[in-house]
Amino acid sequence: MTRRQDHDDGRPGLFILSQQDRDGLARLAGDAGWRAVASRRAEGAGTRFLAGDALIALVDVRGAKAPDALIAPLAGAVEATGGALIGLVAEGRAPQVPALIAAGMTHYLAEPFDADALAATLASAQRLVERINGGVQRARNGHAIRRSDALRWRFDPRTGEIELSKALIGAIGEGSDRRSARSFLRSFSGPDRVSALAAIRTVLHHGDTAAFAHNLDPVSGKRAAHHLHADPGGIVGEVELLPAAGGRRPGQRDYLTGLSNRAAALAWLDEALNAPASPPILLLLSISQLDRVNTAYGQMVGDALLGRLARRMERLVEDVAGPNALLARIAGSEFLVGLHPESTGPVGVERAKFLARRLVAAIGQPFSAGDHLIRLTGRCGIAGARRGDDAVRLLRHAAMALADARQSDGEGIRIYTAQKNSREVDPDRLEADLRLALDRGEIGIGFQPQYATADDRFTGVEALARWTHPDHGPLGAGVLFAAAERSDFLLPLSAHIHAEALRLAAAWPAELDTLRLSVNVTAADISQPDFLERFLERVDGSGFPRNRLTVEITESGLVDDIDAVAVLLDRMRAEGLRVAIDDFGTGYSSLAYLKALPLDYLKIDSSLAQDIAGSPRDRIIVRGVIQMAKSLGLAVIAEGVETEQQLALLAREGCDYYQGFLRSAAVSSEELAVLVGSAR
Length: 680
Description:
Blueprint: E1 13-17, H1 22-31, E2 35-39, H2 45-51, E3 56-60, H3 67-80, E4 84-89, H4 97-103, E5 107-110, H5 115-132, H6 136-148, E6 152-156, E7 161-164, H7 166-172, E8 178-180, H8 181-186, H9 190-206, E9 210-217, E10 222-231, E11 234-241, H10 262-274, E12 281-288, H11 290-297, H12 299-321, E13 326-329, E14 334-339, H13 341-344, H14 348-364, E15 367-369, E16 372-374, E17 377-384, H15 391-407, E18 413-415, H16 427-440, E19 443-452, E20 458-469, E21 473-475, H17 477-486, H18 490-506, E22 516-521, H19 523-526, H20 531-542, E23 549-554, H21 562-574, E24 578-584, H22 590-594, E25 601-604, H23 606-611, H24 616-631, E26 635-638, H25 644-653, E27 657-658, H26 669-678
Parallel strand pairs: 1-2, 1-3, 3-4, 4-5, 17-18, 20-22, 22-23, 23-24, 24-25, 25-26, 26-27
Antiparallel strand pairs: 6-7, 6-11, 7-8, 9-10, 10-11, 12-14, 12-17, 13-14, 15-16, 19-20, 19-27, 20-21
């Protein structure tokens, strides 16, 4: 199969809205050399237009009772992108044209017409687009930007293979850019598969355009439409993610990106701040270098970049925070994300920072503009609402954090804190505060669920410590243990975490009595001569059964005296505990000493687990680790799983269990019971 650059055949895109002749118009447009994405539904038409790569829309108003009502929803999106809007009017309806032009139409085509007339009108509209956007070359650069991030696939009937674009792989979580047509269709439900086969056969046998839709997620009801057209040697499918029912009202939408606008964002904030639930968390993102792009390549390319960024961010925000989160464009190159507490879980700021990292990384992925690669940089400020905050104050706090992020040299993310704005936390102050934190009850425990990769059933939890600082808010385990190590406070902290995790787990309701509990022990713990005796006393005193407890020891804590560690692990297993190596892949001599230790589980470090979706070389390394563990009789647990793609690849390589933000952050015992109950 001749490989095309991301399946781009060079033909311009066209968005068609026709309630009575969708397929016929798409066929005529195809004959005229255009790639058509056609729809019968007027609802969400502006958003659907922006999600594609077309700059010209054709709206069929023949027979419509209110023709201007069909034009108006698209007009704002078309104008914002420097596009053209063609109205198709019925014979004898020329008096409608002035009203339609007032509603946003730039061209019209009246019945009767043929393929040549349609082709001429489209060419006229294309010329207008080029003039508006600064010439043919700049229009082509903008087209290349839109195509570079589009969702599509190409089917070659000679090989039976379907090749997926990079953006589509990211959207559906498929790990490979090639797969058989049979396996591709097998992922659809029965009725959807029948529709897909019928559409493919129509294009193969008759050369017509065709379309079908299918469910992406039966739980959320998300659907995708595939618009098919013939291509030399095969079929190309343009994939459109259909907007959810309802969606944003026209007055709440930013017409350039299709996202919520500033007014809608403020309304969302007011509602979230006045709700009885916990207050929201904001992420304020700023895109750098956009002014330089506009100067070098023209406004059309800059606008195209914003549109593609909006699509990338939409998918990420929905994946991490769910469909009820806010995503808005509130200024030229500034975007706002609002997270409900029910979307972020009890560790809200950490969840927000996790999302911020993924958003900044997505912004940094290069865009192809013809022969040029364009790279942008993202910065993010995070602020959580406090008692008495209104929308303006919360936005100001996020803006202060963003200002600090813009001046930083690191990952470009800062979190607003009351005492020190968004500056880094003072280590010396933290060490002093930590010694009071235990007495104040500031160190709590969350339980991150673990799942079987084969069927997603709950199998256990890992106990994770969190410090809710009175000034800085929630601080993660990394900050907590770093402060403890500096202040020589590791042993008291570890003892508190073990006792609290066991106390909470021993009080779990009956529906949780099959879950395993994993607790972490440090190198300082196992270096104590009487560690195991005191640990077992704590376990037995809590009432939690030994046979459901796993002790996780970090790989870096094993390197000092491997013989002594082996004896200790043997004793643990003899007492009914199970043993795991944690954070495997970050240590020093993993392969040399792993076979010498009596273990039950190997936990792959999150950075290694996430590498499986990287290059083929990365995947080979992860595969080797899993196969090595299997050959030693160990079960494998992957930490930090964030995407369906990572999960699918890990399961394919033989990983047994996983945990990570893909399914759940750490939760309280009460929330854990709800999660387990809802899964049954």
